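call fold(seq) -> tokens
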Amino acid sequence: MITLIALSIVGILFSGYLSYQNYFSDGCSETLFSCGGDDAVLIFGQPTCIYGLGMYMVVLILSVLALVRDSKRPLQKAIFVLGLIGVLFAGSLSVYELFVQDKELASLPACVYGFFIYLAIFIVAWLGLSKKNLALAEHTETELTIKNNK
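ret:
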């Protein structure tokens, strides 16, 4: 869970920076990360980084809850699903910005960086769920062995 908390904080800082640049500055075309400039992708009239910020915040909240609660599995599943949604969301935007938009970019689009953060969240959540499945299977097998030996 600590790794997921750290990744979600990185995502919040990243998308928070981009959101700040979009809302309180001249956009993020002249910043550290390229957001498409005048051709930036908007969803419901909002820059895509604001949706990433919201998703990273939800991952952080779920990760903290999973750290302190006894029943972690439902929270881990939710984080896994959010990671998958993030990978699909940022991945499709990355493909669009890299291959569909016909413009020169000074650096990789911000969505590519977001894609890698979501990919890391997805992998860590998947590994956490896989470990739980393995531990559950071993526990069940041990119980069956004990019952059969009686």
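The mean pLDDT is 82.
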